[in-house]
Specification:
Layout: E1 2-3, E2 6-7, E3 11-16, E4 19-25, H1 39-49, E5 56-60, E6 63-67, H2 69-88, H3 99-102, H4 107-120, H5 126-146, H6 155-168, H7 171-180, H8 189-193, E7 200-203, E8 209-210, E9 220-227, E10 230-236, E11 243-248, H9 256-269, H10 279-303, H11 310-322, H12 330-334, E12 339-344, E13 354-357, E14 361-365, E15 367-368, H13 371-385, E16 395-400, E17 405-410, E18 420-425, H14 433-438, H15 444-455, E19 459-464, H16 470-478, E20 486-491, H17 498-503, E21 507-512, H18 528-535, E22 542-545, H19 552-562, E23 569-574, H20 578-588, H21 593-596, E24 601-608, E25 617-626, E26 640-647, E27 652-655, H22 665-673, H23 677-701, H24 709-730, H25 735-759
Length: 760
């Protein structure tokens, strides 16, 4: 195809995410695919923009150059101005002068000059056209000043001024003009285009674009770290509430020869991509495919005489694997365990991906995902889950076990604007009570008290809103269960890191139940209430319910009423107070009041915005005992006894000592164990002090690993054994002596071993 005598490639406009993408196929183009480097390329793009509207421009070869909306707008303005000049025939006779005053001897030269500026050159080099216009204006002004105004009209001069006004109304000329005014001499116009039309370069087989917007505002770098082979930066913007989460994967900044090899490799290995497969088998075969891709890359590099080091081959193979058997650019976000949530709202491609960072809260990324990538992801998830996803089944909820992530997928008609994703990343290792103390989520005494309730085999519910930390707290409380005890976990979403807990010595049996959304009744998955009944038949075990949602509540309270054979029963439920838990369980889930009384303790977690801050901090705000002697409403009849309550002004979980005289649970534990109330509290305070001391040692020795579950469990076991040694030897426990011995062991043995291991 020819435009203006130039041979150019085909183009098309693709609508996606309510945006119009102008895409040029440059594979067979004889000119370079760069707007700033090639006049013919610029001409082609501006000429097409006279016919169509576009939000961005893509020049596609083995790699793609992507020009964002602002860059496309600058070229569109030039296209519109050029079209306006042509429609107005700005070079016509009436715009060249007044023949009655000055004759027509200069009209030919004037016509040629205006045609050159407003027609011949403007689409090739608009900045140079503007520079030539300024030169002509200067010359014409000098002629006007030198000649007799009676013999020389200013029609031509006014025409030049009108052209100047039109050009200076465009953003490109405005920005170029600000640069030209600071220069002593006129540079090559090609150099002027580079700062305006610096394209994002990416392989053609990658759909996502990265946004690196320039801003006059000063961004504050909050954190910088690496995820796999990719750098991550988190910035604070002075005028935006959310933080900026910026990634720069290596595949977006490779030289052309490596892009060529990536594209060729992708073509060759397309047939290698596995079809329907389980995620676990896909994860295990990842290394196999990377080896296949390495072999392919070596062959291609030899065939095209491109020298690559072995490490470069490995890195390129990993990139190919990411976009074939992996999850594409989303894989990098899913691998960042500092993130808790990833959101892709519909319509895909209209807004960047949003994430929730564990430290910095909600952040906007620089990743613009595409509908084609979303469709590919849907196909992958549908194949792995074996579940339908269509208009009849617009919801799909699925666990990605190799990434410790749950994905919720919705589509039309539920989501009228198209497909949307929500990924929830689970912590690979469980939170521990010392980690929560370190982060001010709970006080040391609060941690010691909850540990006591676990040890006393109470029935507990942990409640809070989504993102309040209730599931994380439940995991931390599980670590307080003695390792000699068996644990049965029933959950519809694999949030609890069972494999890790088994590795560090816990005896756990997990029951996977049917998801409450996106699952059909006739699937092979077991309903939560049936799984819970099964759990009660699996022998003497502590029972943990991932989340109480519906029918399983009645079965759970059956377990609570019989005490699950004398072991702790614990679950999580959505709510914002102990009273709201009662209201939901009794009034919404139809559990009788008499059954609800089987609950011993309700722990409430909540995000707090201190002083109206934009950021929320997770805190335990309430520890409440459920008393047994009330009939209808526990709040009106004093059935809910707060043992600890959060003081937002002090940012402290305070112990309500005066309420202890009304407590029934301590009397119950005292009767069952033979321990006095004073002995019980000595044990609670010893546990609290031990966890606080772990935090102190972590900070003093700068060993965050000390607070991880694999180490806190060892420390807890040691404390229990020291207590038992005293009990066996003396028939009673000197809690101060036990704590002293434990601290000595921790400082002189355990931490030394941990530091030595860290140096290796």
């Amino acid at each position: 195809m020819k435009i203006g005598g130039f041979e150019v490639g085909p183009w098309a406009v693709k609508e996606e995410g309510n945006k119009r993408h102008l895409i040029f196929d440059c594979r067979d183009c004889v000119y370079s695919s760069s707007i700033s480097d090639d006049r013919a390329c610029m001409y082609h793009v501006i000429k097409v923009l006279q016919e169509v509207e576009a939000d961005d421009i893509v020049l596609a070869e083995v790699y793609e150059r992507v020009y964002e909306k602002n860059q496309a707008n600058m070229l569109s303005e030039i296209a519109q101005v050029a079209q306006k000049f042509e429609t107005a025939a700005i070079w016509s006779y009436k715009h060249l002068g007044d023949p009655k005053i000055e004759g027509e001897k200069r009209f030919g030269d004037r016509h040629n000059t205006i045609v050159k500026i407003t027609h011949d050159n403007i689409l090739f080099d608009p900045i140079m056209s503007y520079i030539e216009l300024l030169r002509e204006l200067k010359s014409e002004k000098e002629r006007l000043d030198a000649e007799d105004p009676k013999q020389y009209s200013n029609v031509y001069y006014q025409t030049l001024l009108s052209i100047k006004k039109e050009l200076e109304a465009t953003e490109l000329i405005q920005r170029a003009r600000s640069i030209l005014m600071r220069l002593k001499s006129t540079p090559d116009s090609k150099e002027l285009y580079k700062p305006f039309f610096e394209a994002q370069v990416k392989p053609s087989f990658i759909g996502s674009r990265l946004i690196f917007e320039t801003t006059e505002e000063r961004l504050e770098l909050l954190d910088e770290y690496s995820v796999e082979d990719t750098s991550v930066q988190v910035f604070k913007h002075p005028n935006k509430a959310e933080k900026l989460y910026i990634i720069n994967p290596p595949e977006y900044s490779l030289p052309p020869d490596k892009y060529f090899i990536l594209s060729k490799t992708k073509e060759v290995v397309a047939s290698y991509r596995p079809g329907k497969t389980s995620l676990s088998s896909l994860s295990k075969s990842r290394k196999y495919f990377e080896r296949v891709y390495q072999s392919t890359i070596r062959d291609i590099s030899k065939e095209y005489s491109i020298n690559l080091e072995n490490q470069e081959i490995i890195e390129l193979a990993q990139i190919v694997a990411r976009y074939t058997v992996g999850y594409g650019i989303l894989e990098l976000l899913l691998s960042d365990r500092s993130l808790t949530d990833i959101y892709l709202d519909s319509p895909i491609g209209q807004k960047p991906i949003y994430v929730v960072h564990s430290e910095f809260g909600q952040c906007v990324t620089n990743i613009m995902y595409t509908e084609s990538e979303a469709s590919s992801m849907v196909s992958k998830i549908r194949a792995m889950s074996g579940r339908p996803f269509d208009e009849a089944h617009p919801v799909l909820d699925f666990d990605l076990p190799d990434l410790e992530t749950r994905v919720a997928l919705i589509g039309p008609p539920l989501s009228p604007d198209g497909i949307a994703f929500a990924f929830r990343l689970h912590k690979v290792t469980p939170w521990t009570l010392p980690q929560f103390i370190d982060n001010n989520f709970i006080s040391p005494l609060g941690a010691g008290l909850l540990s006591f309730f676990v040890d006393s085999q109470t029935t507990m519910l942990v409640t809070g809103s989504r993102g309040s930390g209730k599931t994380s707290l439940a995991q931390a409380l599980m670590l307080e269960i003695l390792q000699k005890n068996r644990i049965i976990i029933s959950e519809d979403t694999a949030e609890i890191p069972v494999p890790y807990m088994k590795e560090i010595g816990f005896n756990i049996q997990r029951l996977k139940t049917r998801s409450p959304i996106g699952s059909q009744e006739d699937t092979s998955e077991v309903a939560p209430e049936d799984a819970l009944r099964t759990a009660l038949r699996l022998g003497d075990s502590a029972l943990i319910i991932g989340e109480v949602r519906s029918k399983e509540a009645k079965v759970l309270y059956e377990a609570m009423r019989i005490g699950a054979a004398g072991n702790i029963v614990m679950g999580t439920i959505h709510g914002d107070s102990a009273y709201s838990v009662w209201d939901r369980i009794v009034n919404d889930l139809d559990v009788p009041n008499t059954s609800f009384k089987a609950t011993d303790i309700v722990v409430v977690a909540r995000p707090i915005r201190f002083g109206g801050s934009l950021q929320s901090k997770r805190r335990v705000v309430q520890v409440t005992e459920v008393k047994k002697h009330w009939q209808n409403d526990p709040e009106l009849e004093g059935g809910l006894l707060d043992l600890m309550e959060f003081n937002a002004k002090k940012d402290k979980l305070e112990f309500l000592e005066d309420n202890l005289k009304e407590s029934e649970i301590f009397t119950k534990v005292s009767n069952l164990t033979g321990m006095s109330i004073q002995e019980i509290w000595k044990g609670i305070r010893m546990n609290a002090s031990s966890k606080e001391f772990l935090v102190q040692m972590k900070r003093e020795h700068k060993v965050p690993e000390l607070l991880e579950a694999e180490n806190t469990v060892i420390c807890s076991n040691k404390l229990v054994l020291l207590k038992q040694n005293q009990l066996d030897e003396f028939g009673s426990i000197d809690y101060d002596q036990v704590l002293t011995e434990w601290k000595h062991w921790l400082q002189n043995q355990f931490i030394k071993r941990l530091l030595a291991k860290k140096k290796q």
